[in-house]
């Protein structure tokens, strides 16, 4: 069977132009106009979102093609249920069976369909006329009587369908933040100075992995000992800053490590006079900027050697560790002058709500510490009472 026959001729293709990146869905090499225009729109703020949505929409288009349907021709909610069953890999069996996706992942697929059909409706490429009022959608009389899935998709609630009896795959448990012992153990197992620096930047500044791998040489100032986070479209490794642009002051020890890397390992790896700070040091991609999935693999292997579970490790844990550390210091050591505003600016948060998660974590840890302090006192009181009883 030919490749195009197996995939129904539908593929995600990438178009690059200087520092611009576009994701397209093509049908036998011809762009699907509606899909491409929509992907351009949702990629404005993040082409990583565009990439993720493109592959989700491609999966839906291939399902429809396999069933000889077009996205504009779907007429009822049953098509969505059949698509979900296909995603779960459960065929006609929907009772007490474990699917292949988590509930969250499944919801994401539905969310993408909702957004796509919402856009089609707004562009009058399909016609029904629900109007968005706050979080509610109120249906009005359709402009044209054509077939449309949008209404059914928007109202589609997984919990209310027969698919609610499916046992979804358990959501992965990720390591939320590292202990000091875990940080030390992982650093000891990282294979190169480059990898140790990336990990150290993560836990010492709270930068996202996309922000770290998007760093250029001129974003590092060894004299001021700072790193500058700049929002740029880095098509070479698709690293992207999602938070606010900012300048972060780093410890002298980290600054010295970066300087050592630039003058040694990086100099050897820099085959193409790259502007990126972190480069691949070996293999067919030597000299090209490091990608996040490559560092995740390195991190997981180092964590495994350090005694942690690979499936629990993620690049975001370093950022979470820094946030939790700052919140705890703010509460326990007010003399340091750490404020909520300082934490928000340090981590580039756009909303004050972001800190609440870490404040809850702080409260939980404090409760545990209080219990640990109370227990010896209570135990001592019980022993004292027993001694008095014996006397």
Automatic annotation (TrEMBL):
Domain of life: Bacteria
Keyword terms of this UniProt record: DNA recombination, DNA-binding
Keyword DNA-binding: yes
Gene3D superfamilies recorded: 1.10.150.130, Intergrase catalytic core
Annotated ranges, domain Tyr recombinase: 173-372
Keyword DNA-binding attached: yes
GO BP field: DNA integration; DNA recombination
GO MF annotation: an example: DNA binding
PANTHER family recorded: PHAGE INTEGRASE-RELATED, PROPHAGE INTEGRASE INTD-RELATED
Family designation: Belongs to the 'phage' integrase family.
Protein name (record): Site-specific integrase
